[in-house]
Amino acid sequence: MSELKRASIKQRRRSLPLLIIVVVLIFCVYYSIYNAEVQLITTNSSSDVKKRSCFSVRSDFEGPLEGVWKESLDKPPWLELSCKYQPASTSCSYYELPFNNRSLRLSKLRFHPVKCTLEAFNPERFLRSLKSRKLIIAGDSLSQQFFLSLMCRLKDYILQDNVIWGNVAHSQANFCGINRKCMPKVGQHTNFLENYTNPIWAKFEYNVTIRYISIKAEPIKEKLDFISSFSTGSDIMVINKGAWRQKGYKEFAARMQDFRNYYVANKDKLPIVWWRETNPQHFLGPNGDYVPGKRLPSKLKTCAKASPDRLSSSHVDPVNRITNRVMKELEIPVMHTSHAMVSEFDAHLFKSGLDCTHICTPGVDVIWVEYLYNWLKFEHLIISPGSPTLKAHLQKNA
User: Is a pLDDT exceeding 70 seen at residue 243?
Assistant: First the structure.
């Protein structure tokens, strides 16, 4: 073989790796451009979805919204007892700071749905949406927490209130936190004293009144008769029966049947009714239920994590299965907040494993407030066909 041919072959062999490198580089460049375009399209389509406000379509009212919790508030709405309406018993920051920052993290949480945008609570817009109406928060001690959460977020707009404080509950009389701050014995920041002779309410700008009505194990007819005595068809009642079932779910189902019968016979006398799902518990029993005598291990520093099946979007705790079935029959809209809250096992008062029902405030209670705020923006989508009073009110205040 001539020297010329040998040189040509060597040259081609040296050129081959270079050619491969060039081809690979061109492929990588084109792939990067393609991938960037795909990501841009995906981001744009995702943004388009995000631009839609939650509850701007009817389907948002029909089940839980999938989403995640994020520490997205710049600062806590309040901490410790800086809000005059905050009971010490549910202020985790009062008992924990500065030795445990859990309550600080909880106070900055917001729930962020995946497929829509949940607008952050705006107190003035909230009151404008309720202009010249009453809002009744009715239910057990979790509904009372809902009420205090609203009060603390609206405190700058309160014109007058009738919030009466009672004595500290016996079970809390000697409770002190890890920072040695103890439960006040009497007066402000103890417990709300609510009954027929001492109604809890506040009047706000825009001629708005918000009331809390306790409904626990007593016959529901008694309390609903009372509510109908001071409300109109354009007012709103957010109601929940809690988990009061001293004799099991059958007894609870019977109580809900009482509610159904009363509503069918008296709905024209009641305000607009919206049902709030019962908050998930995180004890050791099935579905997080409290089992008498079964305490969380002393070494455990939080309430019990929810089982994987409870975290599934298709799972509904038994108490909410009962209530949601009744509400569907009555065409009463349900605030599906339980699914979003079931993952937050560390949001409870805890207190050495004794309270995995009630929640730290401020904390995940923000979802109740923001759902209500966003519901009010689109309440025309859930007006009952038989609510001419509300339709007239909406037209008047449009």
Answer: no
Q: What are phi and psi of 237, to 5 degrees?
A: -120, 120
Q: Give the alpha-carbon dihedral of 121, 205, 190, 236, to 10 degrees.
A: -70
What ranges do the domains of the chain cover? 73-396
**Cα 276 → chain centroid:** 9
Rounded Cα–Cα distance for residues 132 and 102 (Å)? 39
Residue type, 269: K
SS3 assignment, position 379: helix
Half-sphere exposure (Cβ direction) of 222: Cα atoms closer than 13 Å: 9
Q: Using an 8 Å Cβ cutoff, are 200 and 212 in contact?
A: yes
Cβ–Cβ contacts within 10 Å for residue 133, how many?
A: 23
From the list 202, 258, 209, 259, the residue with the least C-alpha distance to 234 is: 209
List of long-range contacts for 249-256, beta carbons under 8 Å, 24+ apart: 249/318, 249/319, 249/322, 252/319, 252/322, 253/322, 255/220, 256/322, 256/323, 256/326
Of residues 267 and 243, which shows the higher confidence score? 267
Residue 46 has pLDDT above 50, yes or no: no
Find, among 382, 276, 256, the residue nearest to 337 by Cα.
276
Phi, psi of 83 (to 5 degrees): -90, 125
Residue 274: strand pairing partners: 238
Q: Residue 291 in contact with residue 285, Cβ under 8 Å?
A: yes
Residue 382 · residue 61 · CB < 8 Å: yes
Residue in the structure block whose two tokens are 């010490």: 88
Helix (H, G, I), strand (E, B) or coil at 273: strand
Q: What is the pLDDT of residue 82?
A: 97
User: Residue 279's pLDDT is what?
Assistant: 93
Residue type, 42: T
Evaluate if residue 77 carries a pLDDT over 90.
yes
Comparing CA positions, the residue from 360, 336, 362 lying closest to residue 346 is: 360
Beta-sheet strands, E only, within 142-228: 158-161, 200-204, 208-214
Residue listed under structure tokens 């409904």: 215
Number of Cβ atoms within 10 Å of the Cβ of 343: 16
Cis status of the peptide bond prior to 385, with omega within 30 of 0: no
Integer Cα distance of 279 and 140 in angstroms = 11
CATH architecture of the domain with residue range 73-396: 3-Layer(aba) Sandwich (3.40)
- Distance of alpha carbon 92 from alpha carbon 194, whole angstroms: 23
